[in-house]
Write a structure and sequence with these properties.
heterohexamer; A alpha/beta (462); B alpha/beta (366); C mainly alpha (102); B: 366 residues; alpha/beta; 7-stranded mixed β-sheet; 20 strands; 19% strand; C: 102 residues; mainly alpha; flat; binds NADP nicotinamide-adenine-dinucleotide phosphate; binds nicotinamide-adenine-dinucleotide
Chain lengths: 462, 366, 102, 366, 462, 102
């Protein structure tokens, strides 16, 4: 009876995992999806402990409860306390824990399985190896993200070296299974090789590519869990693991695509950070890019957005799509106004001519003096093809040709997004510090095209 | 058949009834076309363009008319031209026949038949022959240009380094053909446009051009053949109330309100003008029919209390090239309707023929 | 080769489930917007914490005097719990930004 | 400190240098403002608006000037006004100092200091004080309205029951501030617009307003402080070739080409005018500086071969309300720049001060 | 070995079904998807026959081949010869054949199963009942669609009656299984009841709702096939059947949503045809509606589209979105022009003013006389908020107030789509026959809103 | 109740497959445009023709002298083939409109 019930609970948990992931892919339901998957997981864990058939010594129960309680407290607190910006590292850390768990299971089970079910040895080893790689790889990724390990470390010919190790490791595992080499020496040696391989796999990859690597390691851990499922003929581990394995792999590819970096070159090419063409002046650091779809979500959940149009809007003839953006945002309850700098564009009133053409309400156009105090209450400022009129050098740099010109003080807003095609300078021919500030992200591309994408993403958000 | 095109005689009239482009169509209908010399000059159609198109040139009106079967002009004939008419000839022009009893008598006595172009019925299939409509349309455009020219301000909003220029506020009375085109033109130039009319369907039409409509709380007025009827004094009072606020803020006011067969209604009183801003401008398009304001005078600029009241009685004459083109097309389409197989075909069952044939001496046919 | 086919036949249901699960995994996250990449990854990360069940099974199966297995098992359960709890909580925190909307 | 605002004296000038809205700002700077009676009348600013804003009214220029520290006008002083000047006073207006040697001498002799508003350097932070820019902008708009008023055609395309009116073709020479606004305005009204300029960056700017640019195959011309330099005869020949086709089709041509410190270039020869269509119109905005066509005359309409050449020397005076507002804002911003703590602060390191201070008798400071 | 290989083939076939359906949901891949599923099906059928373990008499082989050959020839020819407009009936017919096949299997297997595997009796009966309902229901749907059965026939209180029969039928089946009533009398009686129920189920439903009903019956047949899979422990039948069952059910719901009719009211409400509010004149028959997404596909695959704007475009202020539509179509290689009727709108040049505002190229605006001959080479004419200017009464009905006015002769195009909000008349106040013509479909809704949807669908088509 | 749970346990893989298949079925046709409703329905229709395999199995299992079963089986195979072949062919014809594009 118990053992029967447990299957139903496992089935239920698997379904919550599927539903949870599905809901996680949509901003509206993501949070609920996470909770649903967590619920299924809790049930599955509880069921596993409670519905155990054979009698188990209470010591073991205490140990299990102790481990779970400890893990819960530590995990909960860490997750709750971490700063927003440090979350990716934490994900990597937790992923490593999962990998370590799988590796440990392999280490413990190997002797037993070798003794009783030699046909399952391959499965045990596979789970152990993958878990170990995921563990050590995740630790390296974590160290890179939190800054302990700053640079990509590359041994000479590291690609070839890594491939050789990989092949050797697999061959060794096959040998163990085939030759019945069940001595624990072999097991621990294999384990060590896997750990080393995990380190060597991640260490040459640049920091900018870490999210992709974590996602990949994440699907590895999923695979390791699935092997656990095979081992114990346990459906929830199997399905949960496979689910994460396949979804994680797809996600990795999707992320690569979003970053415009083929997975292959992330792993093997490893040319490090993405570089952005910079012109009209020395680079003053690196800029952060934002994708149209991220921006769409960000705007969707804002309460106030200010659009700063500039000459680029006119060049792109993007006046109609900017109006569409305005309409869509307003429909979603976002307040939108336009901040018009007196010399935006190339003729007095250039922006007025454009925006009147697309029927933007005159009341939505705000003069510089009126709008400057409003930025502080603004969630997102979207600068479209403007440059000089938002250049802080006008206030700070007496040597600048625009020094003394009043500017739109977009920096007091919560976040600034700048759309332009490149890092090229504007009319005054000078570099703009704003683009390198922490609050600023760049949305590169022709204004008409990029805003079209933004509008599309917004529409798809319902 | 011979067709004579006369040069206009009215002061300030620059149009011509037939433009060179229509000649080939008219020849196709079976006409030989004689054009009075310099008839198209003011509208930028030179005599040699007519001859190139296949017309011949007559040096005087008398010469052109003698021997013609059909004589065409934009405006009603002068006494002198009536004198040149011969029995059996056909006259075609605007005649404003309801206001021109005497002229009609003269034409009847001359033994001619006469078509009045402005009497075209407002039915769908007559739209392409309706000169009032085609000319009103151009007038609506031109009224805005004239207003923009008189105004000390510009229309669009401009936010510049030297400060923000606020957009001009334009208020339009009468949302007929002219009013609609005025709305469209003023909107294009960037003004904030409001309009009002007695006919309730004008609200949607106004909004379809992106402007605001001022609704006068009343039952509205039913139309008759496309024209508005006269309204009650009560309505006019309510209208005053509804528009006064807009009037006080307006930079440019354009009035186009006409009532078929009656004097134009006075929509803006002297007191209302005194509400208006220093420097504002009124363009009165109804001035030829008595005017929509208390002070407007035909073809004069009246200054009152800082407000310019500009009465223009003949807007189409200010854009003679286009207005002549459309007129000419209206007329050639109309002739196409009247003529079959190279002969006039007086179908007295047909609303278009009966509506426009205001003097019928064609005893032979009918 | 024959062995493989035989293996397949005995486990055909499992193979089927694996294949279907792959389909489901791929379909389910089909059109995820980029802004959800990280939370989704984190959520998936929490889900593979299901490996903890394996660790629990190991412990339940151990003899109470096999100290090595027990301590390794304890560690495994602890790490697995970290993965599960930390994973879900951190995901939830990431997703907080989506709840603000009026 | 006392500030006097004079009434303009030039024929046809309707602007005023300071509008009532600026008075409070000027008072904030420490000025007592005296306005000559009726100074703002033609721009629709009545005397009582000035007094309401806190200025006092002087009945004559002499009365206003006596005792004033600073005297402001739009246009250069007349001989008579120079006569009223007293040593130590400061004069501020457009002076066109490079063309007005004699006037500068007189001012120097009078012992006054003088700022020339039109000498404002073209740098970013001076944009808000640049009267040439603010006035050119309005002129660009008005040139199109004037063109539309003179043209026998309408601008937009209209497909109507009486046939299709083709859109007007507008060709603009010189894509500076005025040219750009002219492009924008003509586009708004529905015309097909083309433009040309010596400066290659104008192509993108023209296209940013939805119009077409005619590129002259040449190296283009480098600018100097925002202004175009004189071009070679070779360039002018190439330009002719490139534009002639468009010229022959154009309904309206607007010329705005200026070269700093030189006579305006002749861009349209008599032969080229003869290529143009019967009924077409040229608006020459450069006529005050000699004109961009061979035939234009200041403030006259020249008819040649069916083409009207309209030379308007002072467009801003035709929209006096807005142009005065912007001028006044330019000036009060400029004064805000010159004055600190209620006193003139002659910072002779500052490009803006040195650029505009064309007569310096302020021996005390410097 | 054979029996092992067959499972791999079945697995492969199941995967082709999944892929096939997936590809069928996207216009770009639909055709290939169909072929892939067909390939999988062929393999599965061939494998079933060839890889049979036990020896089978050649007679049986001949019979099987004969049946398949006959079915192939008949099915192929019927499908190839049928007119485009008659396809839905054919789908219904084929669906009925599948149902009949399932029903027959049940009839044949019942005695055998009763004798050897009584625990599977429920499964056999379920497959038989569902197959029978699907069969008879499909036949009725077919008859309705091809016009044999014109009207919805409704017995008094038919909803209650049907529900009673349904409950009775299920109870009877339970009784047979539980009581071991294996006499064939029971079997055939149950079969008859199921057939009758299928008829009664479909017959009260109106013709307009038939597509939904067919889709529902389609998922029924899928279910019947799945029961077959249970019966024979045959994975390809099971998965194929379940797949169709679930996809078919979702599709049914989606179709209901697209038609704005809850499934419940299709089945029980059965108020027959969808009625469209008609005003300004007597109804002249029924109009066909088209959805934005269908229109998007149709336009996407056109080579020439003509847009006819009218007063409604101005009322809706849809000038900007119509321009967007034009741009999108042109990007996809579709030629787009606008046909401007001289009196479209409410003032001379009304359409010009609007379209100039959204920067439609003057060259794309065609006068009536020039464009009328072009309609014959046009794939889709999209009439947006125009009415009188495309009313054929102007040519044909001397009593009409617009008689004699030249019109845009849109009817010579391959297909005409009219967007307006309702069936209300235009300026002239008269009904428009065009809307009821065979070539015409209506796209109801405010022009701005509906065109927005159309644009979105087009964007999603890549 | 207990029976049900037991049944479930013995067939847990099948149940799982059924549930996953339902997911896949629903996911796979997620965003089908309305224009594809009919072809999709028709394609699905052809797929459930897989029931023909049942008919074939029936025949393969029949005794060569069980004429009733054989003739019914023959009919079933014939009808199933109709469903399969007709279904795919008609779907293909419906989809022809999508190939025209340059
Ligand atoms: N308003 C006037 O009257 C007037 C007159 C003369 C000069 N100015 C001067 O012009 C400047 C105006 O400032 P602003 O901020 O409006 O313009 P800006 O400083 O010239 O910057 C415009 C920016 O737009 C970007 N851009 C160009 N085409 C684009 C496209 N298709 N899509 C997206 N981005 C595009 C360019 O960057 P990428 O190349 O990287 O895309 C450029 O940096 C001021 O310096 C002002 O002094 C104004
Ligand atoms: N052009 C001129 O100078 C002029 C002047 C006066 C009169 N007219 C007359 O006006 C008519 C013009 O013909 P037309 O075909 O342009 O217009 P129409 O015949 O008046 O038809 C317009 C159609 O647009 C639909 N509509 C209204 N609002 C809509 C919206 N928001 N979204 C979608 N559809 C909407 C209406 O149907 P629903 O209500 O069902 O939506 C209506 O049937 C002719 O009869 C002409 O004689 C023209
Ligand atoms: N053949 C046709 O179908 C056809 C042709 C031309 C015009 N029309 C229609 O006829 C109508 C009238 O057009 P029109 O331009 O010739 O009209 P109009 O020139 O006679 O009058 C102009 C406008 O003034 C309005 N008006 C009258 N009294 C008023 C008052 N007291 N206050 C405010 N407004 C007042 C009228 O309602 C009208 O809209 C329009 O709807 C037009 O579309 C139809
Ligand atoms: N403070 C500032 O930054 C500031 C202020 C105002 C203007 N500007 C810039 O200065 C530039 C000139 O503006 P402007 O309007 O005062 O110029 P302008 O009035 O001096 O001349 C008008 C235009 O005529 C053009 N031109 C001269 N010779 C020509 C020829 N032979 N053929 C064709 N075109 C010819 C010039 O290039 C210029 O574009 C513009 O780019 C403007 O944006 C900058």
């Amino acid at each position: 009876m118990n053992i029967d019930l447990i299957h139903i609970i496992y089935l239920f948990a698997s379904v919550t995992f599927i539903l949870g992931l599905k809901m996680l892919s949509n901003p509206k339901t993501a949070r609920k999806g996470n909770l649903i998957a967590a619920l299924g997981m809790t049930l599955a864990i509880v069921a596993t402990i409670v519905l155990k058939e054979k009698e188990v010594s209470p010591v073991i129960y205490y140990l299990i409860f102790g481990a779970i309680a400890l893990g819960t407290v530590v995990g909960w607190l860490t997750a709750k306390k971490v700063q927003m910006t440090k979350m990716p590292e934490l994900v990597s850390l937790f992923n490593g824990m999962g990998g370590a768990c799988a590796a440990l299971i392999g280490l413990i089970e190997f002797p037993k399985v070798a003794a009783h079910h030699p046909e399952k040895l391959g499965i045990v080893l596979a789970g152990m190896i993958i878990g170990s790689i995921s563990f050590s790889g995740s630790m390296i990724a974590w160290a890179k993200l939190n800054g302990t390990l700053r640079n990509a470390i590359r041994l000479p010919k590291y690609n070839i070296l890594n491939t050789i190790i990989l092949i050797g490791m697999v061959a060794y595992a096959v040998f163990i299974v085939a030759a019945g080499a069940y001595a624990s020496m072999h097991l621990y040696l294999l384990f060590t090789i896997a750990i080393v391989y995990g380190v060597l796999f991640v260490i040459p990859i640049g920091g900018a590519d870490m999210p992709v690597v974590i996602s990949l390691l994440n699907s590895f851990t999923g695979l390791a869990a699935a092997f656990g499922g095979f081992l114990y003929d346990n459906q929830v581990m199997l399905t949960g693991g496979i689910l994460v394995g396949s979804a994680g792999t797809l996600l990795t590819l999707v992320m690569c695509k979003a970053m415009n970096r083929p997975l292959f070159s992330v792993i093997f090419g490893a040319f490090g950070e993405t570089a952005v063409a910079s012109g009209g002046g020395e680079s003053q650091g690196s800029v952060r890019e934002v994708s149209a779809s991220d921006l769409a979500v960000q705007m969707n959940y804002s309460s106030k957005v200010i659009i700063v149009p500039g000459y680029g809007l006119a060049v792109a003839q993007a006046q109609h799509v900017v109006k569409e953006l305005e309409t869509l945002l307003e429909e979603r309850g976002v307040e939108v106004v336009y901040a018009i700098h007196p010399v935006a564009g190339r003729m007095p009133g250039h922006m007025n001519v454009l925006l009147a053409e697309s029927n933007v309400d005159y009341d939505k156009l705000k003069e510089m003096e009126d709008v400057n105090p409003e930025f502080a209450q603004t969630d997102v400022v979207l600068v479209i093809g403007a440059n000089d009129v938002v250049n802080p050098a006008a206030k700070t740099d007496p040597s600048s040709p625009i020094f003394g010109m009043p500017i739109l003080e977009v920096e007091s807003a919560k976040s600034v997004v700048v759309n332009k095609r490149s890092m090229n300078a504007g009319y005054a021919g000078i570099q703009n510090e704003l683009f390198f500030r922490d609050k600023t992200s760049m949305l590169f591309g022709d204004a008409k095209k990029v805003l079209g994408e933004l509008v599309n993403e917004l529409k798809n958000l319902d | 058949m011979k067709l004579a095109v006369l040069k206009e005689t009215d002061a300030g009239e620059t149009r011509v009834a037939i433009v060179p482009k229509s000649i080939s169509k008219l020849k196709g209908l079976g006409f030989e076309v004689i054009v009075q010399s310099d008839a198209g000059k003011n509208a930028a159609f030179a005599d040699d363009e007519y001859t190139k198109a296949g017309a011949s040139i007559a040096s005087s009106a008398a010469e052109a008319m003698s021997g013609a079967d059909l004589i065409i002009k934009v405006n009603p004939p002068t006494k002198e031209e009536v004198g040149h008419l011969k029995k059996g000839q056909i006259w075609m022009s605007q005649l404003f026949h309801r206001l021109n009893e005497e002229l009609l008598g003269d034409l009847k006595n001359a033994g001619v038949s006469a078509f009045s172009l402005d009497a075209m019925p407002r039915i769908s299939r007559a739209q392409s022959m309706d000169v009032l409509s085609s000319q009103s349309n151009l007038s609506g455009y031109k009224s805005v240009i004239t207003g923009a020219d008189h105004l000390g301000k510009i229309f669009p909003m401009l936010m510049t380094a030297a400060g923000t220029v606020t957009p001009a506020k334009v208020l339009i009375f009468g949302v007929g053909v002219a009013g609609l085109q005025a709305i469209a033109t003023a909107k294009r130039l960037g003004a904030i446009v409001q309009a009002t009319d007695v006919r309730p369907e004008c609200k949607e039409q106004t909004e379809s051009l992106g402007a605001k409509f001022i609704t006068v709380e009343d039952d509205g007025v039913k139309t008759e053949g496309g024209y508005a009827k006269e309204v009650t004094a009560e309505y006019l009072a309510k209208q005053k109330e509804a528009v006064n606020k807009s009037l006080a803020q307006a930079d440019l006011v354009i009035t186009t309100a006409l009532v078929q067969g009656a004097k134009a209604p006075i929509l803006i009183s002297k007191e209302q003008i005194e509400l208006m801003k220093n420097g504002s401008v009124i363009i009165d398009m109804a001035v030829a029919k008595g005017g929509n304001t208390a002070l407007s005078k035909p073809d004069e600029v009246v200054h009152h209390n800082g407000v310019k009241i500009v009465g223009v009685s003949n807007f189409p004459a200010q854009i003679p090239t286009n207005s002549s083109e459309l007129l000419s097309r209206n007329i050639d389409t109309f002739l196409g309707h009247l003529i079959s197989d190279g002969k006039f075909n007086w179908d007295m069952e047909d609303e278009i023929t009966t509506g426009t044939l205001v003097v019928n001496n064609q005893t032979a046919t009918a | 080769m024959n062995e493989l086919i035989e293996y397949f036949t005995t486990n055909k249901d499992i193979v089927f489930i694996v294949i279907l699960m792959v389909f489901v995994g791929v379909e389910v996250i089909g059109n995820v917007p980029a802004v959800l990449h990280t939370p989704l990854m984190s959520g998936a990360n929490a889900i593979h914490g299901v490996v903890i069940i394996g660790a629990i099974l190991v412990m339940l199966d151990s003899e109470p005097d096999n100290y090595l297995a027990l301590s390794l098992g304890f560690l495994a359960v602890f790490l697995g719990t970290l993965n599960v709890v930390g994973g879900f909580v951190v995901t939830d925190r990431m997703l907080e930004m989506f709840k603000k909307k009026k």
